[in-house]
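$ run holo --ligand "nicotinamide-adenine-dinucleotide" --emit tokens
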Amino acid sequence: MRIAVPKEIKNHEYRVALTPTGARELTGRGHQVTVQAGAGEGAGFHDRDYEAAGASVEADVAMLWQNAELILKVKEPQAEEVARLTPQHTLFTYLHLAAEKTLTKGLMESGATCIAYETVTDAKGGLPLLAPMSTVAGRMAVQAGAHSLEKAQGGAGVLLPGVPGVAPGKVTVIGGGVVGENAARMALGLGADVTILDKSIDRLEVLDDRYQGRIKTVYSTADALDEAAKTADMIIGAVLIPGAAAPKLITRAMLADMQPGSVLVDVAIDQGGCFETSRPTTHAEPTYIVDGIVHYCVANMPGAVARTSTLGLTNATLPFVLALADKGWQQALRDNRHFLPGLNVHNGQVTYAAVAEAFDLESVDPADAVNR
Ligand SMILES: NC(=O)c1ccc[n+]([C@@H]2O[C@H](COP(=O)([O-])OP(=O)(O)OC[C@H]3O[C@@H](n4cnc5c(N)ncnc54)[C@H](O)[C@@H]3O)[C@@H](O)[C@H]2O)c1
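-- output --
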């Protein structure tokens, strides 16, 4: 199969959809891989690395897209990329269509087959191509929050591990899923006093068992949130209600109960944020202060660690990429019922029910699309 890897063009996106290691796997199976010149630079992969893996490097973007059957990307296609898509293309990337009507229409009009990373599932009921980025964001959250606690950043001047004779800082994580557990693990590793709040008893049980009491687990209620506001040096927002905007769990009024210079890290900002005073920020200016409380609300946290994020993402996507290349999209999706829900748009029609519902469009069952 002819596979193309364009350079990402979304603002401040440095990841790339295929590493030289992945390229080698594909070329070793007889596929033809073409990488846009400079596509891997932001993640520390050079054109020569791809060439050594048997891929070719193409500087002409129009040629790259025209010659491709399978296109591997990281972010949703931007307008100029949508314009390059045709019915010959299978696109595999993050799409997040339910919030993007223009993009959805554009992909439908292109006639291309569009498979989204974020809707691929696994046997455990998880989202295996979303989880690596949640892991990155969770681990970064504590690093970012610890820096924000420094005096020069507007923080309270608290060192999370404390020192002998001085108690460690208190970190409360709201939401003990992938982001929350990874944040809690990092905070624990730094020697902080860590509590996780969650609404799911099952999840709290797993965490309690896994960390054997080293992380405190608390059922998430209004009282528990009030207590967190009064006592925590850092609160990390990591809740997710699938398909819904994040609930506002820390209100502006509650900021008055917090110690001045405490830090709120709202990882759930990409779903609207779970603190009332959150608004999206960027890596260029990641924090701002409201009522003496430092807010870190970067919507695209993994972008700051593009190399690790690229490696984590491509480890997860590679088996799916190999299946698409070896079998073609129809057979690959037919053979794997967890890959099938990845299909979002095909032949001008939406094949993912939640996206169709969001825009009042008719949806086609992906199983019908692959069997046509
Ligand atoms: N900012 C970024 O760069 C970035 C990167 C990755 C993920 N995220 C976001 O982080 C959020 C968490 O993602 P995840 O992968 O950990 O999700 P997840 O589904 O693994 O975990 C969410 C957890 O929140 C819990 N929860 C729901 N409502 C709650 C409540 N009221 N109180 C306490 N807990 C509650 C759920 O029970 C679940 O355990 C999502 O919004 C995701 O989009 C952001």
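-- notes --
Residues 2-120+306-370 form a domain with the Rossmann fold fold (CATH 3.40.50.720).
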